[in-house]
Amino acid sequence: MTPHRKNHPRNAAAAALVLALVPLTAAGPAGAAPTAPASSYEMYQLEDAISLLVEADEDRTGYTPAAFPHWNAGQDPGDLCDTGREVLLTEAVEAPDTSANCTLSGGRWHSYYDNQSTSSLRDLTVLHAVPLVEAWGSGARNWTAERREAYANDQGANGSLNVVLTRTARERGDQNINQWHPPADSALCRYAKDWVATKLRWGLTVDKNENEALKFLADNDPCESFWVIYRPAPA
Which residues belong to any copy of the GmrSD restriction endonucleases C-terminal domain (predicted)? Predict the structure, then answer.
């Protein structure tokens, strides 16, 4: 698979603004593309990935959390862990102990949204990269119930579900990327990357303000080295 790249002059003033917010994140040797995990994946620089998104008005009317059943039995029903606990196990930087009925104890996690680590499970939430109501308003309202459940429990893509501090999850709520970004400066480009990858993976649209916010981020140095790697979700 050949990675996609586009080069053009940058807006220096805008770059300076974002540089003040987000330190430049190294992604290997200059100009080097990451290696995609398999040929079935698509890989684009962030700017080019954003250009693939379809712009359309958002319609959140009729949304209810019940339209996205979660958490379900997860990838391995036999482990007695629901999707949320499976994500906690996958993202642990120090593995917790697991007892009957997937009760977790101990362990340690890092919330990239906050650039903070904690061993307190009660301080953590498994959060959708793109909020459920945002997905609904961007096309999921037209999906089957089964596809919405698959979206809400998606462990098939890195970044679809993230372990974050509960207080940060509450602050984010249902806000779009043009309304809110993670409190850690170092998280902004990764957050944009996860947002775009999720939208492309599931064929979701972006509204005008959202699209402009994404383009602004991608058009400046801190985020231009980031690559979006995704695989379309199963039909």
Answer: 103-214
* Non-local CB neighbours of 209 within 8 Å, separated by 6+ positions: 176, 178
DSSP summary character for residue 33: P
Picking from 42, 47, 40, 50, the residue whose alpha carbon sits closest to that of residue 6 is: 47
Query: Which residue carries 């990675």 as its tokens?
Result: 3
Q: Considering the entire predicted model, what is its pTM?
A: 0.86
Place of tokens 């979701």: 204
Q: What residues form DSSP beta bridges with 164?
A: 125
Beta bridge partners, 118, equal 109
pLDDT digits (tens, 9 = 90+) for 158-184: 999 999 999 999 999 999 999 999 999
> Can you tell me the distance from the alpha carbon of 91 to that of 81, in angstroms, rounded to the nearest whole number?
14
In 97-168, DSSP assigns E strands to: 97-99, 103-105, 109-111, 116-118, 124-128, 161-165
Cβ-proximal residues to 45 (8 Å cutoff; 6+ apart), any chain = 3, 4, 5, 6, 218, 224, 226, 227, 228
User: How far is C-alpha 107 from the geometric centre of its chain's CA atoms?
Assistant: 23
Label residue 101 left, alpha or beta by phi (over 0 means left) and psi (-120 to 50 means alpha).
left
What count of other Cβ atoms lies within 10 Å of the Cβ of residue 77?
10
DSSP letter assigned to residue 96? P
What is the Cβ-side half-sphere exposure of residue 12, based on CA atoms within 13 angstroms? Answer: 0
230: enclosing H helix or E strand: strand 227-230
